[in-house]
Design a protein that fits this description.
Layout (H helix, E strand, L loop, with lengths): L1 E2 L3 H18 L4 H8 L3 H15 L4 H7 L36 H6 L13 H8 L26 H4 L7 E3 L6 H4 L3 E7 L4 H17 L4 E7 L9 H10 L6 E3 L4 H5 L4 E2 L1 E5 L5 E6 L4 H14 L31 E2 L19 E4 L10 E9 L4 E3 L4 E7 L3 E7 L7 E7 L17 E4 L3 E7 L7 E7 L5 E7 L1
Parallel strand pairs: 3-4, 4-5
Antiparallel strand pairs: 1-6, 2-5, 3-7, 7-8, 9-19, 10-11, 11-12, 11-13, 12-19, 13-18, 14-17, 14-19, 15-16, 15-18
Helix pairs in contact: 1-3, 1-6, 2-3
InterPro entries: AhpC/TSA (IPR000866), Sig_transdc_resp-reg_C-effctor (IPR016032), Thioredoxin-like_sf (IPR036249), Thioredoxin_10 (IPR041017), Thioredoxin_domain (IPR013766), Thioredoxin_ResA/DsbE_sf (IPR050553), Tscrpt_reg_LuxR_C (IPR000792), WH-like_DNA-bd_sf (IPR036388)
Pfam families: AhpC-TSA, GerE, Thioredoxin_10
Protein name: LuxR C-terminal-related transcriptional regulator
Length: about 475
């Protein structure tokens, strides 16, 4: 699952600061949830992030890490109570595969002293360490009982579709148009592998429950700059057989009205216009369909047919091999990257000739040849520019475009120094040949046998490729 950076990420960390202060004052997770309109599991997740950020292990130590009400600080992050010395930089949270690279390490190098502490210290520290905590660790969150009073939000008072910049497959829809219908709102961005693996379920529900009164609305809020505009969304919708209405949300107005932070995110609104259920990320499909059917029944629907509906997921939409997945999504622009291993590090926004090290650690990546590493992406300038990734997963995907000129860019893939053969993904031949002809997610590898750590080397035979992220499954 992905989160949006910038103001949205800052708001998320502000929530964590509130959670931490309430926990410091002795409130339980359910009490904090009731105060902040969150489920207890959601509070627990955010609180774990806070404790890891501060390098502490208990709520008792939290009292030492946070300022008192008058702004004074009895301790400093990492110190804990007397007799519990720590290193001052916190410690990494255990996860599937390495996530902390040179860029993130530089973000947390300043030593912390009591002089750095203010009432906003936690918020600032969380922002600075944001690279360590990708929200794709969370498969689902809980806002409390699906039919509880605290889960009901009036649609006009809080969330709206009015800010959509364009519509596909439908005229613009309003809350008034949808009143009396059960509505499933799906936030997506078309290069997100988590959304692609969720899509078969949403598509199946749209088809199975349309006649019972369900309206599915996809809200496309673009993560990368090249995903803006209705044309790319239209191509993605046609490629993925999406026939339900799509609100193009280039300005993130709909996203903000829902207070959303994640791709993908599902919101279920009942026939009276109230939010009754939501899910962030992949998973929770049976629960979501159960609530969906409940809301349709409440709205007066008759026979809803078999449960669960039949879902067909093929190609890039097939479920991940979670048992073997040890690699995490890696961004290739300097703003969010981790694990960059080319000697000398990143030179931001300037052309440079990079080289790859002799060996890569799991979760690390490198460039070779003439590249510019920009905020969002790395851009190749000459033929035979190479991107090398060390990973452990069944599937390897690359989010890439052919650049501003739009001229297709040929590439060749080697897997552990050899053509991929039977392990080639949908966008690669058995000999490793492929082409980046448009901006989208490309499946490079789908291994057919045992999954172990491997090195993928992508050599771009033409200049101009823009590479944004590698993802796994």
């Amino acid at each position: 699952m992905r989160t949006r950076t910038g103001d949205v990420r800052d708001a998320l960390h502000a929530r964590e600061a509130d959670i931490a202060r309430l926990a410091r004052d002795g409130m339980s997770n359910p009490d904090i949830g009731a105060r902040l309109f969150l489920g207890a599991r959601t509070v627990e997740w955010h609180l774990r992030k806070v404790l890891t950020t501060l390098g502490i292990t208990s709520r008792r130590e939290l009292r030492w890490a946070l300022p008192d009400g008058d702004g004074t600080a009895p301790g400093w992050p990492g110190a804990g109570p007397p007799g519990h010395a720590r290193d001052g930089h916190g410690r990494e949270r255990p996860r599937r595969g390495p996530r902390v690279g040179a860029h993130a390490a530089r973000e947390r190098t300043p030593a912390m002293t009591s002089d750095h502490l203010s009432s906003d210290h936690l918020l600032d520290r969380a922002r600075r360490l944001g690279q360590l905590f990708r929200s794709d660790d969370v498969r689902a969150e809980d806002r409390g009982d699906a039919d509880g009073a605290d889960a009901l939000w009036p649609v006009e008072a809080d969330f709206s579709l009015a800010a959509a910049t364009d519509w596909l497959n439908s005229r613009p829809l309003t809350g008034a148009d949808l009143r009396g219908r059960v509505v499933l709102v799906d936030f997506w961005t078309h290069t997100c592998i988590n959304w692609l693996r969720q899509l078969p379920y949403v598509r199946a529900w749209a088809d199975a429950y349309r006649d019972a009164g369900l309206v599915v609305i996809g809200v496309h809020s673009p993560e990368f700059s090249f995903e803006h505009g209705a044309d790319g969304v239209r191509r993605a919708a046609e490629a993925r057989s999406i026939g339900y209405p799509i609100a193009v949300d280039d300005s993130f107005g709909v996203w903000r009205s829902f207070h959303n932070h994640f791709w993908p995110a599902l919101y279920l609104v009942d026939a009276t216009g109230r939010l009754r259920h939501h899910v962030f990320g992949e998973g929770g499909y049976e629960e979501t369909e159960t609530v969906l059917r409940q809301l349709l029944t409440e709205a007066g629907a008759g026979d809803l047919g078999p449960y669960p509906v039949r879902v067909e997921a093929h190609g890039v939409e097939a479920p991940a091999d979670w048992d073997s997945l040890r690699s995490a999504e890696t961004y290739l622009g300097y703003d969010r990257t981790t694990g960059f291993a080319s000697p000398g590090g990143v030179v931001a926004d300037r052309p440079r000739t990079y080289s790859a090290p002799d060996r890569l650690r799991l979760g690390h990546w490198a460039l070779a040849g003439a590249w510019t590493v920009a905020r969002e992406a790395a851009v190749s300038h000459e033929p035979v520019g190479r991107l090398t990734v060390r990973f452990s997963a069944r599937d390897l995907h690359l989010v890439a475009t052919p650049g501003r000129q739009g001229t297709p860019v040929r590439f060749r893939l080697l897997l552990d120094g050899r053509p991929p053969g039977a392990d080639a993904g949908l966008d690669v031949g058995a000999d490793g040949s492929g082409t980046v002809a448009e901006g989208r997610l490309h499946q490079l590898v789908r291994r057919s046998g045992a999954v172990d750590t491997a090195t993928a080397e992508i050599e771009f035979l033409d200049p101009g490729a823009e590479v944004y992220a590698v993802t796994f499954g």
